[in-house]
Amino acid sequence: ANYCMMTTTGFNLKLGPITCHAVNGDVTKLAISFKNNIVYIFSIPKSPTDKFRLLQELTNHVDEVTGIDWAPQTDKIATCSADKNAFVYAQENGQYKAQMTVLHSPRAVSCVKWSPFENKFAVGSGGKLVAVCDFDAKHEFW
């Protein structure tokens, strides 16, 4: 019998418990949050001897980040938080910049997911509500 053998490599970032994470489309970057309001973007090591390299910190949330999703084709990152907000980040000049979102959630937002066409995203909240957000080009916000 043929068995597929996979090797798993562990990395210790030594930054605390991971509450949410997402990987970009070509699996070269990792967005991760450690039970705080910051999303850290790291380059993913190509070999076990390489190290994670911090590329950027996204600091727009004021409370714990509860969800991250990375759109593989458009390279946009959607985040949500206990602060009742969601943000969309798009790359400009090699850095991720926050795009304005209008989300009127009465409770903490707990999860976020891009649509298959990556033109909309959904967020779920503690108020048992799901909001579907799309981009308003006229006013330039989600």
Q: What does this molecule look like?
A:
It is a single chain. The chain has 142 residues and is mainly β. It contains no helices and eleven strands. The chain is 0% helix and 42% strand. It is globular and about 45 Å long. Strands 1-2-3-4 form a four-stranded antiparallel β-sheet, with no helix packed on it. A four-stranded antiparallel β-sheet has the order 5-6-7-8, with no helix packed on it. Residues 1-6 have low confidence and may be disordered.
Relative helix content: under 10%
Main sheet: which strands, in order across?
1-2-3-4
User: What form results from the Cα inertia axes?
Assistant: globular
**Average residue pLDDT:** 89
Rg over alpha carbons: 16 Å
Count the helices. How many? 0
Order of helices and strands: EEEEEEEEEEE
The multimeric state of the shown protein is single chain
| Strand coverage percent | 35-45%
